[in-house]
Amino acid sequence: MRILDSIRTMLTNKSSVQMVADDPHLASEIMLLVRMMFIDGELNGPELELFKQYCHSVFDIPEQDVPEVVKFLREYGYETSGEQAAAVFSEMPGERKAQLLGKLITMARADNVLHEKEVDLIARVSRVLGYTPEQVNQIVAGL
């Protein structure tokens, strides 16, 4: 029986990469966060730790799967722009859009240095989501 249970578990449990690949919203959100982590050319400890925390607590991705998920998104998501990834959220409720934007802003601020490219990505995603600069400032103030 244990062998059959093991086989059943292997066949029914999706890997984290498969879970991300099968869900366009999840893939887009994680892709934007990965882009934010790497956009300044450096991967600092606080950014990586925050990303791992999001993967665990928000996306239900175990820490040991994070490198494979990042690798998958970097290899297969390179043709997707930030605007295209954000467009997946354009029809979502306002609260969900604000959560996405809040995560991006928090990621950008994680290393206590706000780079011009990080601000640019936030601005581009904000425009796609339909936010005005004043609304973005309100989201920032609420974090």
What's the short story on this structure?
By secondary structure, the chain is mainly α.
What would you note in describing this structure?
This protein has about 140 residues and is mainly alpha-helical. It has one domain: TerB-like. About 70% of the residues lie in helices and about 0% in strands. The longest helix has 16 residues, at about 95-110.
- The helix content is over 70%
What is the rounded distance between the termini? 51 Å
Number of domains: 1
Morphology call? globular
Secondary-structure element order, N to C:
HHHHHHHHH
Low-confidence segments, given as residue ranges, are: 6-12
Rg, please?
16 Å
CATH level-3 fold name: TerB-like
- How many beta-strand segments? 0
CATH architecture: Orthogonal Bundle
Percent range for β-strand residues: under 5%
Mean pLDDT comes to 84
DSSP helical segment count: 9
**What structural category do the secondary elements indicate?**
mainly alpha
The CATH class: Mainly Alpha
CATH homologous superfamily - what is it? TerB-like
Q: Biggest sheet, open or closed, and with what strands and sense?
A: none
Write the layout of secondary structure elements.
Elements: H1 2-12, H2 16-21, H3 24-38, H4 45-57, H5 66-76, H6 82-87, H7 94-109, H8 116-129, H9 133-142
Key attributes of the depicted protein:
single chain; mainly alpha; globular
